[in-house]
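Step 1: inspect the first sequence and its tokens.
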Amino acid sequence: MKLKYWLLSSVIVLSGLTSCSDVLDVAPDGTLTMEEVFSDPDKVGAFLNSCYANLPRKGYFYWGWETIPTALSDDGWTSWDSGDAAVASIYAGNESASYHPLRDAWLGDDQVWLWNTNNYWGRYWTQIRLCSQFLEHIDNAAVRSEVERDRFRAEAHVLRAYFYSELVKWFGKLPILRESVSFDADFSTLTRESVYNVAKFIEEDCDAAIYSEHLPWRLTSSSEALRATKALAWAIKSKMLLFAASPLFNGGENYWEEAYQQNRQAVNQLKENGYELFKVCTDPNTFGTGKAAALRQLINLQADYSAEPRDKETIWQNNGYTCFVWHIGYIGSGLDQTYSAGTCPTQELADAFNTIDGEPILSLEKPYLDEKHLQPNFNSNNSMYDENNPYENRDPRMVETMLYNGADYTYQGIPRKVETFEGGANAIDLTPGVDDYTRTGYYHCKFVQPGAGGGSQYNVQTPPWKYFRLAEIILNYAEAAAEAGHLTDAKDAVDEIRARVGMPELPDNLSQEEMILRVRNERQVELAWEECRYFDLRRWQKPDGDLKATCRWLTGMRPIRKPDGTFEYRRYNIWTKERGGCDMRDLLLPLPVEEAARLEAVTGVNWQNPGW
């Protein structure tokens, strides 16, 4: 039976491939045979280039210029929370398997350079098929040298692993296709394999690349930007074994020891081959001298391509249109050439930052006494947090992640202070349909280079999106170690991350449960707004779980200015109704309806994700 749908028939029309040298001369019917492609070294290189297509753009490069994954976690709330905006339909609980904004939305045909945003299912299966076809032909292909053949083969393995890993993150279980599938194949026995089995297949691809003699550990020339490396292969292995061991995906099995061993090896291999945390800010004139200035600089500047780079932490980055548009995601619409508040940090994210003595401000086990998060369950061991002065004595990463009332910032060369109190320049506005100002009492700044702003409304600041950096791999290791009972290793890993910003080490003799909570807290703080939180909250749930405790009711902080100029701070619910997107079904994206129906018709098995 022939079926034309994405998974099994991502048709390769080679005239659609792109390369810098336009080497593809296509036949009159618009296609080339595989023999024609792989008999020409230039066309072989162009085919590999096509395997790099459809890489996801992150940050604000979702439909409607929205940071959708952040806005669907407890880290952020979008001011576009009404009308026909993408996130608004999810907040209202109107997403469906037929149309899910996070899965399907595009920015428009007129913006060609943004075409490959979303549509994950179709795009990634296309890429997997391309990689498989490349691997099937490269051994006998015309290449300029055996060194080139070996490196090309390794890159295709890494890319197939990467696109598989992205599908796992969004959709969970997948079929394992080791070869490209002919259109007349028998699909009746096709099955969705467990995430663990898919992770092991991904591991095979990564190992094939790691064992390559000619795949480099690091890129040393900007002309090779985005090419795969051994470091990227290790990063993908690290993340996928962590996902496979997580409650949502582990099928009731305990894979934490294996995840621990793999992540320990990943961290060791990366460090032994020149990767290390970026600890010293090299541009204090721009990023200041705060203890977390190096982290802010790391996020906002491109990693340099050199055998001895300034930034040895970044593993893989996208240098093009990537993650941030300053006039949307910064300080709202109260200043010249600004457009919208977009997504803003929540009080829940603010609550995650410890005080400088290393103590959480809330109980990590039960941070709120009520379902609406209006009654914080304060940590009895914390003596430094002051409800009337909530931003003093906090983890230095807080001021580099979010702008709060009284925080300093510079715009158009003018030093300013954030004013979120009533009547202030950046005041809270909860009016439905008005997206000019924050809903939460906070604004985002992690992906904003200090002093940004002042150009055309459509002038964009685009720091590179760091798909992987060493800190995330260290925290993957910390989590696996904690879950597997290797508490000393977990503590050492978290302490390494905290040391960069001058935060104290974790206490000695934490129980396993306490250590797991500390690791999860550290992930939220260190990786805030890097899209990890969206997936963390989901993979930590069991398959029958939901997101209601963390994401259904979210809060902001309202400063009340008193006559003497001081402030009282009051928590409030952003909405008076529950926010959608928090049900069991929202743990995974739905497969496209037509795809699921066709697969079920062929195999006799329901392919749709639970709840959809």
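Step 2: inspect the second sequence and its tokens, then contrast the two.
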Amino acid sequence: MTAVPSLIPADERTRFDRWRDLLLADPRRARVWRWLAPAVITLIAFVLRLVNVGDPHQLIFDETYYVKDSWSQWLLGFPSTWPEGADERFITGDTDAFTGVGSYVVHPPLGRLFIGAGMALFGADSATGWRIAAVVFGTATVLAVYLLPRTLTGSLVFASVASGLLAIDGLGIVLSRVSLLDTFLTFFVVLALWFVALDRRAALARWAARESRETTWGPVFWNRPWLVAAGVAAGAATAVKWSGLYVIAAIGLYVVVTDALARRRAGIVQWPMDGVRQGLVSFVLLVPVAAVVYLASWSGWLFTDGGYSRHAVDAAPAAGVWSWVPLPLQNLWQYHESMYAFHVGLSTPHAYASPAWQWPLLIRPTSMYWHQDEFGQNGCQLPGGCTEAISSIDNPLLWWAGIAAAVYLLVRFVLVRDGRYALVLTGLAAVYVPWLLYPERTIFQFYTVAMVPFLVLALTFALRDLARGPGSMTRASGQAWVTVFLAASVLLSAFWYPVWTGLPVPYEFWRLHNWLPTWI
């Protein structure tokens, strides 16, 4: 950190530069800030996600599926069906009214396992219990977003800005306060990309330590524990939602390409084929462990008898080359075929459906909850009545600026070939581009919660370039613009926070947040 100020001419150093030097120049002070900055940001994120999380004490949006399924899975090992009127019975404390008959669910079990664990700890009859796992994982995602850019750039300021922006973004806050699966998916995706960044850093150090000489073939590296860890995290993402498969594919592609390019820079003559050779090893390190993690997430279903489709093919087991496969795995395969058919054919109309091409424009955010009380009703003390809303919309400034920054980062990557840009763009593409392949599917804007970490990273890269005074702009002017942008982002999040968290507000205050007619 002490070498950075010397790179800035004395006549260009601003008050911000001197302030940064004061905080970080002393090694002991810098060490304190390396711990203090992520701790404070993570604590702020936790508080924003936890406050009033148990209100409303209702199953909102798709919690009607995930909460009850998670609880029955926690108790039985598999999700169970529930009788008519189960939602009303559940919220009044009758949490064991499930039938014990396996329920058809279309997502893997891991996310429900986390939700069920939170309910076991805090009570299945408590809305806080339903949502506490999302709070924990949403907060952990903020910390992971600190660690990823810290590894990529080595900059405490950069990492703090990126994670701070995620901490105050609306979609991250809302999805950390409702019991859906996407927060768990997002955490494991970011974790996997952080492990890839650590693997890449270790690979660069390994090549730098190698004696430079031109050879026909290079070494094959098996000792890549961070790549194995990335496989574990990506397998966990897939065990939450199948969209994690695209992350595994994107990581594999990134690793093969970057390994091949590293061999070219090292003077390996047959670098393309040598990259393929290393790619096969990387596949062995990445994919099998991801498959093991995914299969392990189904252990409750496999080692019990009551799950949906658990004995579907017992009467007519597979013949021929598949006859050696144990019957439970044959049943699991058939269940997966049914799940795949459901996902591919899902096109049920929904008022808040939003195709993926609309997502960058923020056209149709998802309303999770809306309720209105008259004055004096249910404790409402506002003269014009109380409106409670939970809208899963990003901080609009951060979202649109993040989309613009992603385009900027792509252009910068084409111009300068910076590998850090490539990793951020890889993560963003993995969680967005595949959805464009299903224009007829019923999907929602809140799926973009997995995009937000990479958008704030792209935005932070753009803000860093602006702070350096691009073109004829001075550093002081660039840093002033960055300060204004960050202040505006914080103020806008404060303005939106009540309608992200269901706080009672006047109806007209809620109306002020509907900037586009499609946001209602």
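Step 3: confirm your contrast with the notes below.
Strands lie at 366-373, 386-392. Residues 182-209 form the longest helix (28 residues).
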